[in-house]
Amino acid sequence: MKIEVLTLFPEMLAPMLSGSFLGRAVEAGHLEVNLTNIRDYTKDKHRRTDDYPFGGGAGMVMFPQPIVDAIEARDPEHRARRIYMSPRGRTLTQKVVEELAQEESLLFLCGHYEGVDQRVLDLCIDEELSIGDYVLTGGELGALVTIDAVSRLIPGVLGCDESSEDESFSMGLLEYPRYTRPADYRGMRVPDVLLGGNHADITAWRREQSLEITRKSRPDLLDTAPLDDNDRAILSQLEAADKAAAKLAEYGVTTERIGCAETAAFPKKWFARFVPENTRKAAKKQCFSGRRHIGFLWQAFSMDFAPHTDGEEARAKLAEKQPSLLYLPEENVLLKVDGAVPADAFRHFILTDDALTFTYVQPHKSGFGPYYCE
Ligand SMILES: C[S@@+](CC[C@H](N)C(=O)[O-])C[C@H]1O[C@@H](n2cnc3c(N)ncnc32)[C@H](O)[C@@H]1O
Does the pLDDT at position 363 exceed 70? Predict the structure, then answer.
């Protein structure tokens, strides 16, 4: 790709364009960048490029002659897509970057002072581009940001072509967390799923993380991201987990959400732990023909497939063991809890410890727990 940059301060751009991967891309011929000093084209005898604004007001305005002459000299046949860096332009996004990366040639005009005379834009410029809703002193940083982002998409510029396909915005969502060695740093462990080597599990975990991070940092992206039914199910699970956590926070209980894969495995583990082997088959059969929406597990309990225990005894064990996991079957939410969960916090819930050795089920409905298992 050929890039022309017109600026009053070429020295600001030169180091960035010769270092790191941009420098290598230029050296390898993937990128050709020319810096032009607009001042070299002024016909003003004092080498000025700006003047007072007509109509008054603060600041100076870059006058047309040197800019138009520079553009016509550098891009005489108007082959380049000509861009004026400007806070009032279209905002640079990864989508815009992808669009620009298709061009053979780009020309960036960097303004300074209060900007450039409108006639330059009307005469020579294809579009105005902003790098965000703030005002910089000049267009150079904006041009550099754009050149950096566009260059990464040019085949051969990055070491491995794939590394630009799996990043924030490329799939319409923000990126999942990345980890490298060591697996344990200052007691902070890399999530087990990434060490396990199961690619399907890793892909599912990454997708869930991307959805969660996007939902928290840039919920607006979810309106346009291509989401499937599974993504939507995860998002509603995340929503429900947030609501549950907020409710528990009112009671002074802190929580940590457990991932969707573990949550999905939880009812199965729970069923196997509490429903005796000799009744498991019958319990499953019965439950699948019944109400599915709160889960067959819940029904296994309400239909007495799990052995009842004495409420007092179970409650005493609860106090003694300090359960640490809370499962909301209707919402399919599993939270790690730190503190005692009050019985009136939720309509239905299951409280257990990591090893599922104890379960407390809200006893407001006949046939429901408490249960425990040792
Ligand atoms: C001080 S600014 C001029 C701001 C202009 N008077 C306005 O209010 O829109 C000087 C130059 O910085 C560049 N610039 C400032 N903010 C920018 C942004 N957010 N994105 C891209 N370029 C920007 C433009 O080239 C602009 O001509």
Answer: no
Which residue blocks in 218-335 are alpha helix, DSSP H?
A: 229-250, 260-274, 277-288, 296-302, 311-321
Q: Give residue 353's pLDDT.
A: 87
Q: What is the pLDDT of residue 355?
A: 85
**Residue 41: its pLDDT value, please?**
98
Question: Is residue 115 in contact with ligand 1, taking CB distance under 6 Å?
Answer: yes
Residues 183 and 160: their CA atoms lie apart, in Å, by 24
What confidence score (pLDDT) does residue 293 get?
A: 47
Residue 168 has a pLDDT of 79
Distance (Å, rounded) from C-alpha 278 to C-alpha 80? 76
**What is the predicted pLDDT for the residue at 313?**
80
Question: C-alpha angle 22/27/29, rounded to 5°?
Answer: 95
Number of Cα atoms under 13 Å in the Cβ half of residue 82? 20
Model confidence band, residue 162 (pLDDT cutoffs 50, 70, 90) = low
Q: Is the beta carbon of 10 within 6 A of some atom in ligand 1?
A: no
Residues 41/63, Cβ–Cβ less than 8 Å = no
- H or E element, residue 123: helix 118-124
249-283 core/surface letters (b: 16 or more CB in 10 A; e: else): eeeebebebbbbeebeebbeebbeebbeeeeeeeb
Which of 86, 128, 134 is the pocket-test mutation for ligand 1 (most atoms within 8 Å of CB)? 86
| Residue ranges of domains in the chain, CATH in brackets | 2-163 (3.40.1280.10), 184-227 (no CATH), 254-373 (no CATH)
**What is the reported pTM?**
0.87
First to last CA, the chain: 68
Atom nearest to 138 CA in ligand 1: 12
99: nearest Cα among 77, 140, 127: 127
Is 90 exceeded by the pLDDT of residue 350? no
Q: Taking Cα atoms as reference points, which of 280, 281, 363 lies closest to residue 315? A: 363
